């Protein structure tokens, strides 16, 4: 399916199909991101690094706000979405590393 600008979509059925296509693309990217998170957990285990990195999280969230605003997206929504995503991936890393987040 060819993606269209929102203003070029004429029916709700077409609009929903466009959103579904975007959702598929987002899921593929999130699956790819998860692969990198899994690798990060392996490297953190080898290097004795904890799963949580508050400074890195703050850096990512600030960058997301900036990039969202530049892209014309509501920065509050983008930041909230990234916060939930990051929390989920940190929890995934902690399961790999063990309850204390450093080693199983």
What does the model show?
The chain has 104 residues and is mainly α. The protein has a single domain (6-97), classed as Chorismate mutase (Chorismate Mutase Domain, subunit A). The protein has three helices and no strands. It has helices at residues 12-47, 54-70, 75-97. The model has no long low-confidence stretch (mean pLDDT 93). Its EC number is 5.4.99.5. InterPro entries: Chorismate_II_sf, Chorismate_mutase-related, CM_dom_sf, CM_II_prokaryot. It is an enzyme of class 5 (isomerase).
Annotation keywords:
single chain, 104 residues, mainly alpha, Chorismate Mutase Domain, subunit A, 0% strand, chorismate mutase, isomerase, chorismate mutase activity, CM_II_prokaryot, CM_dom_sf
């Amino acid at each position: 399916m060819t993606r269209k600008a929102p203003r070029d979509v004429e029916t709700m059925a077409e609009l929903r199909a466009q959103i579904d296509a975007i959702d598929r693309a987002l899921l593929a990217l999130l699956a790819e991101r998860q692969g990198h998170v899994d690798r990060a957990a392996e490297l953190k285990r080898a290097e004795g690094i904890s799963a949580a990195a508050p400074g890195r999280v703050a850096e990512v969230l600030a960058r997301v706000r900036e990039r969202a605003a530049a892209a014309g997206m509501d920065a509050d929504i983008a930041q909230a979405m990234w916060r939930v995503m990051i929390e989920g991936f940190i929890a995934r890393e902690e399961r790999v590393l063990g309850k204390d987040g450093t080693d199983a």
